[in-house]
Design brief:
Layout: H1 12-24, H2 28-41, H3 46-58, H4 62-75, H5 80-90, H6 94-106
Helix pairs in contact: 1-2, 1-3, 2-3, 3-4, 3-5, 4-5
């Protein structure tokens, strides 16, 4: 039995690292799968939300990326990935940028 009762391959950190590696190799769907699993295992894993945001953006899901980016910003505001993903979202189509700003202003 391993620490925390989880097998090594079911620890959030393993999935976070896999998501990072898969993003580096341009495998956004694979990265999203591992980021989602890390979040399932640890919903407070801000890095998981940031990685999922990046994977979704790479896959063309700007709305999903924006939602995950909001979660990541709350859970891990110091994560450098958040700024990079936000910058890429902000240079998108004006309609997307407007809806992103409108969503933020509603809060």
């Amino acid at each position: 039995n391993f620490a925390g009762g989880l097998e090594p391959h079911e620890r959030p950190l393993v999935h976070l690292e896999m998501a990072t590696l898969l993003l580096a190799t341009k495998d956004a769907p694979g990265a999203a799968t591992h980021a989602r699993r890390a979040i399932e295992l640890d919903p407070m894993a801000g890095r998981g939300h940031a990685l999922l945001a990046e994977a979704l953006l790479e896959s063309g899901d700007r709305e999903g990326a924006a939602a995950e980016l909001e979660r990541a910003s709350v859970l891990a505001p110091q994560d450098a990935r958040i700024g990079a993903v936000r910058e890429r979202l902000d240079v998108g189509e004006p309609k997307t940028r407007s809806s992103w700003i409108a969503r933020l202003l509603k809060k």
